[in-house]
């Protein structure tokens, strides 16, 4: 039974949704959406602890793996996919898996989430280890696929984190860190792609970004380890180097070329007035943290 879940109850503010003008509906929906970041704020302590687990995994050769079904699964995959171009981290280091497999990313496979054993099987196929962190995403907090995955991960000794949009969620029982963000009834009853989806998106943004900062992928508030895979990103790298060091765009371009298109290295070269080899040595000694590399 799901009728007791907050995510499944009726929203008293939208009972006449079908009788509203478009503008009235938009104002109501916008007001409901404004509750989401406030609900997330109440879980900041748990999110902080979750970031610590992910950083621990990265520092010990482990990975971050999202597991979910439907909207939740797609949000995990979206965050995982974006980590490589944004932070330059290896593809294998941040992964997302979804009930029903890759096919379910673009077409709903509704029955796939009902088998807990599939969650465990999919993690086994990724060769999950006890150095990894698994984040189970489920708005309801009771999705069998996610439950099975988290239970297997916990038995294996991996770090486990759950993200649900109901209190006392079932998936919380299998999580070292349980994040339960209650955003209230949806604008359309049970449509958890709405406020619940927004909450989960905000939380995975915070976890992955916080973890990347924690392993030296960011300098000041600049993404200095991104992959320069197209001209737009090359231009962005030039701008980032100029912002970080105060040099001109032309000087930034020159140092980017001399660093073999490694923004981190270029920044250290400029700040320390050193060669590429010396900059790389400093970064290696500083475990990839630009600020520390410049200080030493």
UniProtKB/TrEMBL annotation:
Q: Which InterPro entries match?
A: Etherase_MurQ, Glucokinase_regulatory_CS, MURQ/GCKR, SIS_dom, SIS_dom_sf
Query: Which reaction equations make up its catalytic activity?
Result: N-acetyl-D-muramate 6-phosphate + H2O = N-acetyl-D-glucosamine 6-phosphate + (R)-lactate
Tell me the active site: 82 (proton donor), 113
Report domain SIS positions. 54-217
Q: Which GO terms describe its molecular function?
A: lyase activity
Which keywords does UniProt give here?
Carbohydrate metabolism, Lyase
What pathway does the UniProt record associate with this protein? Amino-sugar metabolism; N-acetylmuramate degradation
> Is Lyase included in the keywords of this UniProt record?
yes
SUPFAM superfamilies, sorted: SIS domain (SSF53697)
Name the Gene3D superfamilies on file: 1.10.8.1080, Glucose-6-phosphate isomerase like protein, domain 1
| EC number of the protein | 4.2.1.126
Q: Which domain of life is it from?
A: Bacteria
Q: Any miscellaneous information on file?
A: A lyase-type mechanism (elimination/hydration) is suggested for the cleavage of the lactyl ether bond of MurNAc 6-phosphate, with the formation of an alpha,beta-unsaturated aldehyde intermediate with (E)-stereochemistry, followed by the syn addition of water to give product.
Family, per the entry? Belongs to the GCKR-like family. MurNAc-6-P etherase subfamily.
On subunit structure and binding partners, the annotation says: Homodimer.
Known function: Specifically catalyzes the cleavage of the D-lactyl ether substituent of MurNAc 6-phosphate, producing GlcNAc 6-phosphate and D-lactate.
Q: What is this protein called?
A: N-acetylmuramic acid 6-phosphate etherase
Q: Which organism's genome codes for this protein?
A: Halobacillus shinanisalinarum
């Amino acid at each position: 039974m799901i009728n007791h879940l907050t995510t499944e109850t009726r929203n008293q503010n939208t009972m006449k949704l079908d009788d509203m003008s478009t503008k009235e509906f938009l104002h109501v929906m916008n007001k409901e959406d404004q509750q989401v970041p406030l609900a997330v704020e109440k879980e900041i302590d748990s999110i902080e602890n979750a970031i610590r687990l992910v950083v621990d995994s990265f520092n010990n050769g482990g990975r971050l793996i999202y597991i979910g079904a439907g909207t939740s699964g797609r949000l995990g995959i979206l965050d995982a996919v974006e980590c490589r171009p944004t932070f330059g981290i290896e593809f294998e280091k941040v992964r997302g898996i979804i009930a029903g497999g890759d096919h379910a990313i673009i077409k709903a496979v509704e029955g796939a989430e009902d088998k807990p054993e599939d969650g465990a099987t999919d993690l086994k196929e990724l060769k999950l280890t006890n150095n990894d962190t698994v984040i189970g995403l489920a708005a309801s907090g009771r999705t069998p696929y996610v439950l099975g995955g988290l239970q297997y991960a916990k038995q294996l000794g991996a770090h486990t984190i759950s993200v649900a949009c109901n209190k006392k969620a079932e998936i919380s029982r299998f999580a070292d860190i349980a994040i339960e963000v209650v955003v209230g009834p949806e604008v359309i009853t049970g449509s958890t792609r709405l406020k619940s989806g927004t909450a989960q998106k905000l939380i995975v943004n915070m976890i992955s970004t916080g973890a990347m900062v924690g392993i030296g992928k960011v300098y000041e508030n600049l993404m200095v380890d991104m992959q320069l895979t197209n001209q737009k990103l090359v231009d962005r790298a030039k701008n980032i180097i100029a912002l970080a060091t105060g040099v001109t765009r032309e000087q930034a371009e020159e140092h980017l070329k001399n660093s073999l298109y490694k923004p981190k290295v270029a920044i250290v070269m400029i700040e320390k007035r050193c060669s590429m080899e010396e900059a790389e040595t400093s970064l290696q000694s500083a475990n990839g943290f630009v600020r520390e590399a410049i200080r030493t």
